[in-house]
Amino acid sequence: VAVVGAGVSGLAATKCCLDEGLEPTCFEQSQDIGGLWRYTEHIEAGRPSLYPSVISNTSKEMSAFSDFPYPEDFPVFLPNARLLDYLRRYAERFSLREHIKFGTTVVSIRKHPDFATTGQWNVVTEADGKQASHVFDAVMVCSGNFSEPSLPLHCFPGIEKFQGQYFHSRQYKHPDVFQGKRVLVVGTGNSGVDIAVEASRVAAKVTICTRQGAWLLSRVYDHGYPWDMVFNTRLMSLIRNNLPGPLSWRLVNYKMNQRLNHENYGLQPEKSCLVREPVTNDDLPSYILTGRITIKPGVKEFKANSVVFHNCPEEEPVDTVVFCTGYDVSFPFLEESVVKVENKHASLYKYVFPTNLQKHTLAVIGLIKPLGAIMPVTEMQARWVTRVFKEDLHSSSSQPCQHQCFSCLSLLSDLLRFGLSFDEVLKTDCLVYMDTLASFIGAKPSVLGLLCRDPWLALTIFFGPCSPYQYRLGGPGHWEGARQAILTQWDRILKPTRTRVPAGSSSSFPSLLIVVGFLLLLAAIIFGF
């Protein structure tokens, strides 16, 4: 199996291949692992680029690979250097480096002449200026989607007249470039808000403009717990997915506005009936209150040294513009007929398999943006894909793979269109998506089954965080340490924060389960479990 890229997705794919007895060869164009999370001071062509202050938006327990918890002394939310350290430990623990060819770029991937029979691929790579050709039985594309900046200048009238400095957020490294300047940040994604907050500490003035607004999440959620360990539970997912649509959206609106009224801060999403990309930032509200950051509507027109916003007749003086306008997705090494990307969409079954191939021997891993951690999602995709490859490659039939997910579900009726716009992708609940893939390989946990055998574990799984270890309790890839990892997850969350007082019980959250657990579980079953 050829694996393209040695970032988060590529490492998971390589490890899952080894778990299934497949022989992976991972091609990484740089000289080290880590992908997006490996910070470099200079910007490398074809590689993601991040600024040194980047911190993970998801907590360590929800971001772990399912059979490799983070060390308990790691912080709850991880600076990029600590997350890279975790990836290095993961690669060392499972001996992944010996399967990676560093400094090797994948130039092209084409169908083998007898693809219809064998499903094989011709892969051309380049290292040290020399090209080499290989034949692989299958391919896992793990090249990510943060390498090609999207800078649609044609959407900003008058930008050619603007005499100040402007650049894409990919070029940002340090806030000193904003010293004493009037800064405009275009876009309210995570990078845009992060950059605006950092710039406001040294700039004369910082303005964020947004056409659609955004929901704002804090890493610190109810009762001081990490947001994703409270939000992403099976109980909450059950409620969200069984309420009528309008009622569900009202619940989202209420919950998002509980901490702060988004309308008062100029952040209320334009179409609040849609679940849009949430922005994770702990500083923005206070910076708006103290006047360090101002929120404005979208750009109407640029002038020589200023900008005009929609519904705002006066001009705003600007020295520097940072376009936080996202990234384009492309697969330059693939033929367009294999994975066609159009308007930031690609037709991929379950966001993974191209729908028009005779053989299911090529998969795209990690091309999804869940409301939650990406690592467990990419790992689950890789576990499913390698099972499909194993069955397909070991089958003597010349027909396409008859893996259960393809034989039981109609591609035409169940085709999911991957879209990089969150308002489409988030229509698929992350937990539901993970459960679907887990059911394909027999790794979905059975809460009702566990209730008879291990009631405490069942209650913890249903009411507590849906941490990745749940998907190692049974089935292929079963891990003996999964149960203990689940029951001690709150200990690892509280360990790095309870540094002044002696460690007590893991959390008040599990205590609550003792009081109301069985009653709520019964109600949930009646409700439609």
TrEMBL record:
Signal peptide: none annotated. The keyword Endoplasmic reticulum applies. The gene is Fmo1. It is found in: Endoplasmic reticulum membrane. Belongs to the FMO family. Its cofactor is FAD. It comes from Tyrannus savana (Fork-tailed flycatcher). One of its GO terms (cellular component) is endoplasmic reticulum membrane. Pfam families: FMO-like (PF00743). InterPro entries: FAD/NAD-bd_sf, Flavin_mOase, Flavin_mOase-like, Flavin_mOase_1, FMO-like. Broad spectrum monooxygenase that catalyzes the oxygenation of a wide variety of nitrogen- and sulfur-containing compounds including xenobiotics. Catalyzes the S-oxygenation of hypotaurine to produce taurine, an organic osmolyte involved in cell volume regulation as well as a variety of cytoprotective and developmental processes. The keyword tRNA-binding does not apply. It catalyses: hypotaurine + NADPH + O2 + H(+) = taurine + NADP(+) + H2O; trimethylamine + NADPH + O2 = trimethylamine N-oxide + NADP(+) + H2O; N,N-dimethylaniline + NADPH + O2 + H(+) = N,N-dimethylaniline N-oxide + NADP(+) + H2O; hypotaurine + NADH + O2 + H(+) = taurine + NAD(+) + H2O. Its EC number is 1.14.13.148, 1.14.13.8. This is Flavin-containing monooxygenase 1.
